[in-house]
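quick one, 145 residues, struct below
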Amino acid sequence: MNFEKYAANGNVFLKELAEELGVPGDKDRAGRILRAVLHALRKRLTPEEFLDLLAQLPMCIKAIAVDGWKITESPDKSIKRVEDLIHAVIEEDKRTAAKDLGNEQHAREAIKAVIRVIKRHVSDGEIKDVESELPKHIREFIEKA
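---
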């Protein structure tokens, strides 16, 4: 195992996300936002689909995504609207949400940035699989990101 390679790939991903978020060089903030978005998505997706999504991401990003996860959890069907997703992301970021995400509009834009970067690293087919599990409004939000 080449841990330096895993770390390097994760850093490239975080650097790309920091630039997409408009905070170049702030990989810590990018990492917190990425973690919050991935954790909110894992709440809404089936474990199988979430694992399929993660399979195409760098190893370090996978570790962030599964941290604290109970794989036996059922999808949270209460996340029905984009606003529900935004609130789930804010809740996941907890202590630093105000600094990282600001208001709901800024959080919406940050989520879109994360989705755009994920789309560059994951096949179109897998993105379509993820979208197929989501309610219409969230699916459309991801398609337009």
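The radius of gyration is 14 Å.
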